[in-house]
Fold each of these.
Amino acid sequence: MSHADILAASGLSKSDTTGGTLAVRTPVDGSEIARLKVHGAAEADAMIARAHGAFLAWRKVPAPRRGEFVRLLGEELRRQKQALGALVTLECGKILQEGLGEVQEMIDICDFAVGLSRQLYGLTIASERPGHAMRETWHPMGVCGVITAFNFPVAPWCWNAALALVCGDPVIWKPSEKTPLTALAVQKICEKVRAGFGDDAPEGLTQVLIGDRELGEALTANPKVAIVSATGSVPMGRAVAADMSKRLGRTILELGGNNAMIVAPSADLEMALRAIVFSAVGTAGQRCTSLRRLIVQEDVYDALMPRLIKAYEGLPIGDPLAGGTLVGPLIDSQAMVAMDAALETAKSQGGSVHGGGRALADSHPAAAYVRPAIVEMPSQSSIMHRETFAPILYVVKYRALDDAIAMQNAVPQGLSSCIFSTDVRETEHFLSAAGSDCGIANVNIGPSGAEIGGAFGGEKETGGGRESGSDAWKGYMRRQTNTINYSRELPLAQGIRFDI
Ligand code: NAD
């Protein structure tokens, strides 16, 4: 399929993709595939006002009916999975299987949210006063702004939007300026669903803002946006948190990771090897949950490392739309420069590099294909404390498990982590309060590729937000405590007497 065919199959017309100033390039070959019109500050404010109008209506629609909207969205995504998956691949460069996987995540979270729409449970609470009842209820919160990163162009929008919509909140999406086409295609799907839904789905229920960080700032600045859920780098999260704190707005922050795997002496090395390769080179190392640090017990180091280096040498690097490719391109040449710089720094800190460097330069001169790199490090030096968004896997040895856990936890980020071990004492210790300090901690499975049923997010510089499954829905609603007096007296709490 040509690039133009992929755009057309996802419902984008010529007028959607031409005539603007924002150039969209595909990392597949570096060519320009669209020029989009960008929104200005006044248009952003008008959209926010429209979303707020939608909120006043949508909050009164019964939650199961709101769930029906999300059910229909999931159905439409099922129908358009192939086309949208291919567009994800074209726009961000992840292999087609992963592009399709992202759309599947959207479908899964829609299914989850439909069930949730009948389970937005509150509590009944025992009152200390006779003839009184207490309860806790959950109400729609307001407009939810969703800011997303280039590497997962569609799934994180849906983790937020599917929940926000059943919770009664309209959604304004500010996608990455590097991947706005997928957002436009999804907005078309939403509009199709809305057109068939009936009058109770108001105009402005879902909207898309095209542009760079200034449009994100339009969301954080406007008090009519009750929640801003932002996915991206740590510097972006700091800026969003600072802006939102000025007006004490609610944030859900999903920021960078620096994820580790501990390989213990009892590990099944065959399984560990597969998990390492997938989680370190999948999406060309551009997942927030990519494996970046491998902490290997010294007794199994020599058994593991030659096999890992050999597996890297045989990795199929190439066009992410072609079958058989496992490693696609980086998003752009800046990412390639950052990877080279990190490898140079690692060398200067004593690292021994296997792989790395540019790939497919002759056939794809305008794209950023690289060979994934393994770097054996003498210790966890400063370069390993940083997230470089590229396929670099640093490897260090450990002797005692507590040292490995301390090393794992020593970085500023706290997203995902895992241990490969068949010793239950080790695995339970890793999952205990004295173990991993990350939001995600896995056993005998890599750090990337979370399921939507669990709450997703991480601690420390990762931002502390939770999205997707479990009780993440509470982040999109406001909690209200109610005390109801059905007696003929007016007793005060704590036995206070106040006679008039
Ligand atoms: P980025 O921070 O450059 O941009 C992310 C989004 O934030 C873009 O839409 C951008 O326009 C917007 N933005 C930037 N500055 C802003 C500001 N001051 N106010 C409002 N919006 C602003 O990130 P990126 O390069 O697109 O993505 C890679 C990063 O995202 C990595 O650090 C990765 O770990 C992280 N990420 C985290 C998760 C997670 O769930 N924790 C998921 C995916 C990506």
Amino acid sequence: QPRSLSGMQPTSDSLHLGNYIGALVEWVRLQETHDAFYFVADLHALTVSPDPAVLRERTRLTAAQFIAGGVDPARSVLFVQSHIAQHTELSWVLSCLTGFGEAGRMTQFKDKSAKGAGPNVGLFTYPVLQAADILIYDANVVPVGEDQRQHLELSRDLAGRFNARFGDTLVVPEPHIMKATAKIQDLQDPTAKMSKSAATDTGLISLLDDPARTVKKIKSAVTDTEREIRFDVDAKPGVSNLLSIHAALTGTPMIELEAAYEGKGYGDLKKDVAEVVVEAVTPFRERTLELMADPAELDRILADGAERARAVAEATVRRVYDRVGLLPSA
Ligand code: ATP
Ligand code: MG
């Protein structure tokens, strides 16, 4: 079976609707056809300097949400990035193959360093660690949102470069990006992607929010001064975003959806989207809270996943170290 692999950062208590529709739903689907590896990217989260106790709590919360969303730890390898020391080992080797200018062209670094207070070197080398996350498991497909396309391209380049220089060693991964749902936008600023680390909370649909709050956020989503409901990202980013959310959660083709809203107003669309979201998110929220009530069991699941992940990661790093000429320890 081909292997799929992906991760999310524990950078907030709750995942948001973009993480869910853009990635998690696809992770779950890929379990059917792929040997799946999914992880909580806690090392990546260190780039934004989290409080230690908060990071610990969010790491469990993020893992619980993967399971609540349908990741089955018996089928998939579910683990925490920092439990596998080999990620940082491979990252070092790859960073020595990455051009300084190449890393400097990563747009997420530019976006995030513009927002945060003084970027650190970790934020700069983040895409290299991400390449290690992927390449260390010989992943064939990487299901992510559109915002990760450039990072994935770097992973592919690094795998290819390594293989060209040291002989065939690493699998070159394919991006797996769902076209229609790959990018859910911020409700208040529909030209920006919905983000855990967004400046304001009002544009963010957090999966663990209580339903009343979610409804309120959707009803105050920014639209435009026209009245017509149609999918047109450039001219109508807000309305198009609401339509995307609806289409993704109900599985309705966009053409049908547009037809169904002919002659109706933005208020109708918002009301329906709110209903669809609350319906999807309510069981998810309940299941997450249940899982969080038993942290020992959650830790046991993560320890089991780490053991299975480590076996693969160790073999890759041994292979890589040998290829680049690092002397094995006797
Ligand atoms: P942060 O702001 O801390 O980077 P994030 O919201 O971007 O958080 P990540 O943990 O970086 O979330 O990404 C997890 C997954 O969710 C990735 O596959 C990413 O592509 C996807 N994703 C993130 N935001 C969106 C979005 N707005 N629409 C679709 N997919 C998204
Ligand atoms: Mg992100």
